[in-house]
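Subject: for your reference before the review

Hello V.,

The reviewers asked for a structural picture of the protein, and I figured it would be easier to keep everything in one thread rather than splitting it across files. Below is the amino acid sequence we used in the manuscript, unchanged from the supplementary table.
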Amino acid sequence: MLSLSHPHPHADSTTPARHHRRILPSPLPHHHHHHILRRRRRFANLTTSAVILGPDGNPIGGGPRDHKLPFAPPPTAPPDQLYQPFHPPPSPLPEKYRALDLAERLAVLRDRLGLWYEYAPLVSALSREGFTPSSIEEATGISGVEQNRIVVASQVRDSLLSENFPDEMLPYFDSYGGPELLYELRFLNARQRADAARNAIDRRLEPRGVRELARSMKDFPRRRGDDGWGEFDRDSPGDCLAFARFRQSREQIDPEDAVAELERAMQVVETDAARARVEVEMERARRKAAGEEIDDEEASPELARPDVPVVRLMYGEVAEATTVLLLPVVRETEGVEAMTAAPRRTKTDVDLGLVEVDKGWTRWAVVPGWGPVAEVAGEVVVIELADGRTLPWRSAEEERVLVVANRGRREVVESGIYVVEKEGRLVVERGRKLAEQGVAEAAAEVLIVVRQPKDEDDMISDDEWD
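And here is what came back from the structure prediction:
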């Protein structure tokens, strides 16, 4: 029984009143005294304490002087039931496994009772209950690698269901080799997984083939700007794989190996534009394998290698260079007027490294003292391009590049590379194209194209696939 008692007993209480009397230091006016009494009564009315009474009506836990409630334990729940305020997450187990006890669940895994994607959730459930991969392996015989594979593969399979994957195709992955196939699709998004799964079924791929397909699909968007990239369809798994083999053919030293890679690309290519591009490349490779002299521009003049050096700076290269050049920089958006107004060198003191220019400037680039550039340093200007893919040969990646150009040579010849202005922007064009357009004079002739330093060029991180 719970009742409330006043902490300040009245005069007739057994507790002496002197324990609750306050002595004012000095008499106060009547109105002040009345105010204090009223305030005291107000606080007295608000101050209460609790007393726990036993069955016989006597206080428990120290009587009225104990103003704290004793600790009350939380209500106990019936056996095998959770305390109601806690709401557990939904069970990841299929309905038919929820009634099984621990021994029965381990038996299902140990004896592989059912299809692999049906008992795969049991592994996740055991992990949530505190089991480690090694303890699960000890109890069921399923290695930690296989545990991870079937759990991930079951998640991939679930994503196929969400993408309306044809039901008649799903049984292809029901066999014990299904997890190895689906596991290789784990780094693709849901739509790509569905497309890759269809392609794997149509071509009866093994895990190694599915891995190559998945890598090519994931890598394809990163290759934008590479030679021939635009002729392949990113939404076609076959085109992505064909482009990967197309690129590999160019990395082969032996022409016969290049032809073999292109033949493998022809086996999987799906779109007409991509097939035509592979056929052109294959014809060149076969002629080269036969010993014929091949011009790089025969296949596609717009995709051929440039006629000017394209270099990538190394970290520390400028600091280690014997001589360096300080060159004015112009942004591509500033147009020919800014390039013409960029300062020109008027005097150089080689011994002390002093350089004089004819006007002030705010942006400068420091590059190694390359011979072709140093010879005409007085007329050199650097154009900063925000995206190297705008170069006419499209072999640069999506990165900033510096185009070092000579303003002293402006006459257009077909074999040269030049800087011109188009719609207020500075662009790089081939001399052949400018000549076809009737352009006889450009803003400057390109001497060299400089790419920024990079730690790993054309590499894929191992941990991305493992």
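For the response letter, the relevant points are probably these. The radius of gyration is 41 Å. The chain has 15 helices and 13 strands.

Happy to draft the paragraph if you're swamped.

O.
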